[in-house]
Amino acid sequence: GEEILGLLVDNCADGCYRRTDDGDLPLHLLVRSGSATRATVELLIRPIMHNPTICAYPGSVGVNLPLHVAAEYRCKLNIFEGLLSSYSEAACTQRQTFEPDTAAKKGEAGRQRKDVKCALEIFEMGRGAESSDASREGDFNLRSDLIFVHNPNVPKSVRPYLTTYYKDEKERIMRLATAIKREAVQHSKKLNRGEDAVELTEMAQLAWCWMCSNDHFAEVISDIVRALPIEAVRFLASTKNPKSEPVADIPIKDCSSPRCALMMKSRLSFLGRYVPDRDCAPVHASESCVILRAKDIGAVDSYLSIQTLLSDSDPDIDDYSHGCGSVHAIMGNAIEVDRFAHFARKIGVGQDEAMSQIERLLIDSSDRSADVPNLRECGVKKSVFADFCKLHAIDDRGCRNVVIKFMRSRQCFELERQCRDILCESGKSSHVVPILNQFSFGEGDGKIKGNSNDFTRDLDAPHVMDLSGFRYGIIMPYADGDLREIFYREGISSSNIRENARQVGKTVQALHVQGITHMNLRLKNVLRFGKSKMVLSDFGSALFLKSLSGINAIGGSSTKICPSILPPEMIAKIELSNRDSFDQLMKYWKYVHSDANNLRTLTPHERDSISKYLESSELKPTLPVKKPKGQSWKNDISSLLETIKFEDLPHVLAKCKSRDQFCSTWGRMRENYHLWATMIRPKVDEQKQCVYMLKSFEDRISSPPRDTSKLPYALVAPSEKVDVWTFGIFIYELCSGGNPFHTGYQGDLRGVDSYSKLYEWDRSAAEKSVQEHVQDPLAQDLLCQILVPAEDRLPSIAAVLEHPFFSPKSVEAERFLEKHEEMQLLRDNTVTVRKITKAVSLMVDDSIEKYCKIAFATDKIAFPCCLMVLPYALNFDESINRPVAAASPRLISCAVRLGKCLLEINKATARLSFWLMMSAKMRDPVNGNQFKSQMQEWLKRARYESCASIAIEIVNGLGCGTNYALLCEEVLAFDGTISLAKSYMRDPIRAAKKEIKHNSDGLSSLYQSLSYLYLVDEAAMLPSCPTRKIQGTAYPIQLHPNPKLIANVLLPFMNIVVMKALARNKFDGLASLLGLPPSMGIPDSWRSSEPGLLHTNGNSASIEEFAFLQKILRKDDLNAFKDDSSVLSQSYHSVSSAYDNRSILTFSALGLANMDLSPGDPMIAAVPMGQLELLFRERDPDREFGRLKRVTSAGQSESLGIWTNSETIKQLKSMVEVAELEDKLRDLKTKLDQTQTSATQYANLLNKRKMIKRNIIYNSLDEGVMSFDNSFDEPSVAPSVAPSVVSHGNTSLVSKASSRVSKASSHVSKASSRASKASSHVSKASSYHSNRSEEDKYSRASRIEEEPQDERESDSNQCPVQQLEISVHKIHGDTIQKMTTDNNHNHIDPNMKVGADGAVAGAVAGAGTGTGTNKKMRKSKRRFRPWFTAC
Description:
By secondary structure, the chain is α+β, with helices and mostly antiparallel strands. It contains 56 helices and 36 strands. Strands 7, 8, 9, 12, 13, 14 and 15 form a seven-stranded antiparallel β-sheet that branches. Strands 25, 30, 31 and 32 form a four-stranded antiparallel β-sheet that branches. Strand 3 and strand 4 (162-165) form a beta hairpin. Helix 10 runs parallel beside helix 12, helix 32 runs antiparallel to helix 35 (777-786) and helix 46 (1043-1074) packs across helix 50. The chain is elongated.
């Protein structure tokens, strides 16, 4: 019958809807027939179960709804789901049937009821009738619970005085709670994956809403929300209640009973008072910590009650505490102190601190002279309370923004607490972010520390991300922003930069006093509260300067470090050739490297998937996970792998027997993988064949102890200098907006080049980087003292804070800014030439600046030091083109005596140098005694043998060069009864001082009247003397008689200039420097000083050494100079109020009062330089410097330069232009055979070069100085335009060439007019130069230019311009490009002639075979002396 009924239903399903005239459905007829079974009942119910009308038909006999029939025959779950979803009221309707024998005899009113039961009671009657199988039992409970949730108040049994209900069954409530939790977790995961929004099933939704509406089930609600992650709780809280009133579908969190609502709210708040912000991303997220933004609602109730009292115009006295003391606080719109203290404790502020803050607010808001009112009597007023709330960032709802910092490491957690506690005890915690609350889950003890709430539940709650591995945390106030955000979003002024840096520096200094180094000074770790308060945070990387246990070093694997702020000493370099060291390193980190390599075999997606799976599948006893039969955790992991299976994982993972073991191994490998990638992994430099890495070591508790002596590098102990470096990086980023190294967003160094740059970092690299990116001169000077290697770095933060950068209005800052201004003026007076000749390049390398920096111990000179002070005036003699003294016997005699004194001083220094070498040789511990005995023998022989031969032997024995032979021979000569050698042997410095003192006294006697300070042109080594009197010029500077000023300040500079002049041109150089006329020759008195002429341009070491020796010899003179307060009283005084504090020469200002005048003290050397600087400030305020300019080369170090006149600079630039034109000529020369345009350009450039050379004036420089080594090979006849045209005999090409020639003719006519104009300019230039006796030279050059037919055959003596041999060095880095020429490329085809007017003078010619033509061609191919040879 079942099969037949099935066929009928399939073919005519609508027959199930039909009712008889009595109102019975086929279902009712089947039940009353007595042959109904579960299967037949299900066949007839399925077509009608989704129709609400049919499901409400009771039948003709009593009330027997389809749900009652399904409950009686215990149909399947889907039948109940369909029936209840269509007509849920059926669960509340009772079934009513009658006795069959009375139904026919009596009317309906007289029928006797047989059964009155609800669907749940009917269904529960069948419990136990089904199989005892567990699966059947679970299915039965599920159907029973489904019926129950639609009518939960059904009584289970009704007895007199005792009625039981199904809702009191604990097992049923636990089953429903489990179902709710299971579905909530599943749906929350779907929402997190971004899937479509879903809802709970009907059974879970009705059960959850019913429980939340009754306070009787508050504990059940508490158990549910405590066992669920926060996302699942939020999902449940947003569930809509279909039976809510007054309208349906209100979220359950808004219509729950009070106790249940409290349970949900407390669960949604972290630690019972902090509500994480779901809409904002984490403030910070890394492997070690996560920082989330949240709201503190712990003080909301107290805040609202206070606001209620303050806003009530007629307060009730009963609302106030009796601790007020009087009704003054009530009538004064204030609250009593006790209520305020209670609120302060709620927000984490102690009572004493809160009261002190209130008192400060009262003082700031009122007259400072008024007395502070008694808070116990007056209470806390509304305005003051509002300011207090604003101070602590409490909004108008009583909430406060906070951040929750979760940490994995207990060490970081303890450091955060300990550092703050130490600062609090010392009273230095005002600039540190306070801790409002803290929490931790102790490893091993299972006890909660901090808040009493269940912390394990909170850790498992992924508010924004999974936090299952973070077992420690602190709560801190939320700041307005960190310094990095403020810098890029708002910008920071220079004054705020100084103030922010000063506040941070003071905090770090307080840490250092307590023996703590911060180690992580970054912009993002400095937070702003309010408008200007900057506080320091993040002490997780802090180290103690003195550790009581363990290894006290930087770079431990348990601490987080930021490589981009570490100093150079933290980088190790290992040569790959040193295989032992590299193997030693890899052996130490073998276990970390092995784990990293094993995880590297998986793809990033696979690693992330496994990590998420393990984090989300933590064992939770309240959430049993049902899996299909035979499926295990290994299968789950295999399904996450893309290309391999679980068995193919690395062996250390594949051998895991349990999920706990796999989780532990995976966590360790993941930690080691991150450690290797971010901290340990060596960075290989293939070019240099080495590796760079951080100096790190293993100190994790979970890892076995390792011997750090096995590492191939020495560990760096924590010190204040490390924080000084990080503080310097902090200031650098504030001033420039970036890091000096290429870094990532998380502070890691990017690429091996960054590691190499940091390892090789030195002072020059720091100065270059700072000058390029930092504009503030005070910051530049400070950073150049901080961002340097450890040995040169400032020792402490205290020393850093003493720098003028932090006090820009101090005297020291003003002095520094003046010096910076001087250097800026120096840059304005500096001309940088792109290319210079080889001679000028050597001149720059051998400049006066170089020797002055050595002699006066300074690295910056902002004015010319090449000067001469003469006791007479010079006049420019145009006939010899140099300044000379007047032809007066008195002046000439004075100049000769001056030269003699300078030579003798130079000679005494040379003797001192010689005998110092001799003394060092004698003190040699190996051969000193032997040389000393040999020296005694030489001195004995000098009494009766030739001093010349003995001098050669001594010089050879010393190995100092034969140029010392004459000096040694002179010293060996007898002077009366005692040898000069003995006096130098006994005390060479004393002997040299005696000679220098004697000659200095003689020199001082020459300056008894007005003297003149001349700046010296270093290019020509001649005094800079104007050709005519220039109005308003300060040069030469006239000095009143002051021998001490000359001897102690100006003479050291004069000695260096004299040595340079002697090195360049011996006695003639000194004669030119003193202005002696050339006709006089070399004075005979000077000849005796020839042994002291040891200096040469090729060897500058002697000048450097002599400059240093003269600094030693000036010790006594400077001592006397310090004591003489009237040194400059007769020379000059300040006349400008702007220089009142810096122009008067006082030694207290220069630091000489407490100066130790020892030879090694750099202050000794700086005295003359400082005095000369003040002299120039006073006498040359416009920095005219005699119209001299400083010249440097772009390819050389700009720290060196020479001072020369504008004419020389103009010539240098002209020669640079010539060299650049020659480069273009070389390029065009190869194109002349192909295009007429190239030929025209070639001719124009050639003509331009000739015109420039015609205007070059050699007034102060020798031609050799301005001569380059190689010159451009200019042909006498221009190359043919298209020689291939004739050679191939192509008439069409010839015609094209003819047309080109005609076009060229038109250009010739135009160029002729231009040439005529150029001739007029040339004539004017010639007349200008005629006053310098150069007319014949330039007229001859003009004639040569007018006849350029064969310049190679012209006489080289006819034009000095042709004798220029220019060697242009293209200096770029260390590259010097030189182009060589040969006979095949240095000539140009003679078939084309290029005239001075730039037009083509020749036409296309054939390849002739005549003798004259061949002879001319052979002559053109000869090697000749060119103007310019390629460099």
